[in-house]
Every structure is written in structure tokens, then in C-alpha cells.
Amino acid sequence: MYFFEGNIFEVEALKNPVTATIEIPGSKSHTNRALVMAALTKGVVTLHNPLYSEDTEVMISCLRTLGLQIETASDQIIVYDEISTIPNKFSELFVKDSGTTLRFLSALLCLTSGTQVIKGNTRLNERPIKGLIDALRFLGAKIEYLEKEGQPPLKIHPSLCTKNEVSIDASMSSQFLSALLLIAPFLNGVTIHPINGVLSKPYVDMTIHGMHEWGIEISQGEKGEYFIPAGQSYQKKSYYIEGDYSSAGYFFAIAALTKSTITLNNLNPSSVQADRKFLDILASMGNKITMHEQAITIYGKGTIPLTINMEDCPDQVQTLAVLAAFSKGITKISGVRSLRLKETERVQALKNELAKMGIHAEDTHDTLTIYGGEPRGATIDTYGDHRMAMAFAVAVKKLPGMKICHPEVVNKTFPTFWDQLQLL
Question: Which of 15, 41, 50, 286 could form a disulfide with 234 if both were Cys (CB 3.0 to 4.6 A apart)?
């Protein structure tokens, strides 16, 4: 059983391994990408199995503010209009803490006829966006920083993006490149050159895969550049959004830690989602994975220390860090620099909360080293970060005395998380 006391979540640890089935919601990443592509598609588009969370509802709200007609039901979203039909008007868009919405819409707004202001909450306005804005400005977009250079809020004016070649620095966020790719079919033929590397490239691969599904041709050159021919348009009228591997990762981890058998429904075994790689990490620890048609079963066998680079799936670093606390030995995780620019400074937050559990951790700019052993129960602060809450919920199912502060932060990406956890 579990209960909420004020703003604290507490649940009984599992006394024995369990066998359970969990329903995984639609992917946040796929839902927001699909909403942008639907907003660029002529005619009515129906999105099936969407995720409703703070991040996706912010995207829907902003598109409605622009003037798009969007109908929502429990199992689908219907987008009736596309971006060229919206009136020439001034709009002010508030994206709360949704970095995906901020970046994708900053590019999308360059195709609108009105002047728009876009901004977020304090933490989001501190997160960088310069790499994307530099590329859009080079193409011809008229964008102002309203407060601090390189950060939101932004004012985006009607403009024509006329150049056919652009470089973009996506070393801070893959979303910069994804945002530019999503509007690229409307740029009269363009070649995009990523420079300084691409952080979390599997998320870019997800964007390209989705664009291919919607009928867009993209080719990649020998030097990593992307060419998107002119004269293309998004074609889907009905699109199914697959289940979210980021959400599934917490239950995969619980199975491993508690040696339970958990089946997760609504997962595409051949998905290109970045966090599918977390399954490979757990398999390398000795856990057994079985694929089904639209489900995955994990037979938990335990955890062991690892040395691993997680740049391609940074959203599971916190989950692996919690597993590392129980793995007797030293776990070294590299590729963590992007965590310093998320909803909170996640590397420092992890060190703080692991210390409460009696686990020592050390870091450099791009690494986190965890000295596993015998963790103890603690009250965990979540720093307004949904992934801090869900990652440490993995420990809740193993360790008596664990409590999670402000459990409501999971609403950002997985509102039903605590209900699903109860099923264990």
C-alpha cells in the first residue's frame, strides 16, 4: 500500500519478488513531435494513444493560443488546422517548464504570420537556446532576446528563411537540431550541418524516423550533414503514438533491483527511442529480457557496478544512479553534462540525495562516480524535477523508510506513475 501525507509519498517496500503487469502511457517525445507535425499538415490529423501530461498539454495550449483548433479525448487528439491558416496576430505563449515545447515552437513560430513572444518559468528561462536561435537567424528569422542574450523570453517576428545551408551547434541539446529538422520541409530545400557534435543523437534519430513516417525525405551525407529537399509536406492523417520507454525505465529498474518479473504493455520492441538502450544496460547486468508483439517482460536478476557512457540516454542516468547505490562496488557514469541544464542541476541533486541514503558520489563536469554499498532509508527532495521523483521511487520498492517529497512533480511526463507503482 502507499499513502500521501501532505506533500510526501510513502510506500511499503516489497518483501518478496512479485510478478506484475504495467500499462505504459504514450511517449511524451513522440506526442510533442506529432503535435508539431500535425500543425504543419494540411487537413484533419488524428493522433491516437497520446500522452496527456504537463509537457504535452502545454504544447496543445500554445498551439490553441496561436489559433489552431484542437480537440482532445481520452485516447486521441484531433488537429483540425495547420500553421498557415492561423491569423496574423500577436500572441504570448507560456510554456511553463517544457523545454521541448520552447525549442520546437521557437522554430515553428518562424513560419507564422504574426509576431509572437514565447517564455517559460524561471528555471526554463535560464536554460540555453542560443544554438537554435543562431541557426534560425542565419536562415533569415527575426528573433529578439527580451532579457538575457542566449536565453528566453524571445520575440519572434514574421520573416522569410531563404538560405539553403546552415550550421547548427547541437552540442548543448539535441532538441535544437530536432526543432530545425521539423520545419526544414518548408525552407525551400536546405542542408543542415551539425557542428561540435550532437548531444543525445538518438533523439534526433527519433525525429527523423517520425518525419519519414509522415512522408518526408531526408538524406544524410558522409560528414553528418542532413539534406531536406524542397516541395515536401507532411502527409499523415492518422498516427499511433507508441509507449514511452523513459516511463518504462523505472519499472525495468524495479524488476532488476527486487528480482521481480514485470511485463510492460504498450511498448514497441523495435522502437528507436533513446531510452530503449536502458534495456541493454540491464541485460548487461544479467537481467533477462523477453520481447513480445507490443510488450516487454523483464525477469529481474539483480544489479552490478558498471562503467558506462550514457550520453545517448541521459534521462536514465538518475535511474541507474539509484541502482548503483545498491550495487556493491564502484559505478562510473560518463556523458552526464547535459543533466546540469535540466529541470534542476541533476548531478548535484543526485549527490545530495544519495548522501542522505549513506551513499557517497563524486563528479566531474561530465562524469558521476557512485560508491555503492548498503543504502539506508531517507526522505528525498525532488527539486521540482519529475525524474528525481521517479528514479528514487525505484529505491522505495526495495528499501524501508523511503519517502518522496512533492510527488506531484511526476505530472510533467507520467501523471499516473504512482497508481502504476501501486500495482506492484
Answer: 41
For 393, other C-beta atoms within 10 Å of its C-beta total 26
Chain position carrying cell 498516427: 239
Pull the grid cell for residue 276: 530503449
Strands (E), 190-242: 190-195, 219-220, 226-228, 238-240
DSSP designation for 378: -
- 109-148 tens-digit pLDDT: 999 999 999 999 999 999 889 999 999 999 999 999 999 9
Q: Which residues contact 324 (CB under 8 A, 6 or more apart)?
A: 303, 305, 306, 331, 333, 370, 372
Q: Report CA Rg, the chain.
A: 21
Phi and psi at residue 80, in whole multiples of 5°? -95, -25
Give yes or no for a contact between 101 and 147, defined as CB atoms under 8 angstroms apart: no
What the chain holds in terms of domains, given with CATH numbers, is 2-26+243-422 (3.65.10.10), 28-240 (3.65.10.10)
Catalytic residue among 315, 363, 381, 419: 315
H-assigned helices in 333-380: 346-356
Q: Which residue has the cell 541521459?
A: 314
Measured CA to CA, the distance from residue 184 to residue 311 in angstroms comes to 26
Instruction: Report cis status (omega within 30 of 0) of the bond before 153.
Output: yes
Tell me the C-alpha distance between 297 and 255, whole Å.
10
Q: Residues 288, 369, 421, 402: what is their CA dihedral angle, to the nearest 10 degrees?
A: 130
Element (H, E) at 403: strand 403-405
Q: How far is CA 404 from CA 7, 132, 196, 307, in A?
A: 8, 36, 38, 28
Distances (CA, A) of 179 to 115, 135, 424: 19, 11, 38
Q: Do 205 and 178 form a contact (C-beta atoms < 8 A)?
A: no
Put residue 177 in one of left, alpha, beta given phi > 0 → left and psi -120 to 50 → alpha.
alpha
SS3 content of the chain, % helix, strand, coil (to 5): 35, 25, 40
Give the up-direction half-sphere exposure of residue 90: CA atoms within 13 A in the CB hemisphere. Answer: 2
What Cα–Cα distance (Å) separates residue 389 from each residue in 49, 61, 275, 401, 403? 24, 26, 18, 15, 10
Half-sphere exposure of 402 (CA within 13 A, CB side): 27
pLDDT tens digit string along 201-256? 999 999 999 999 999 999 999 999 999 999 999 999 999 999 999 999 999 999 99
Active site residue 315: yes
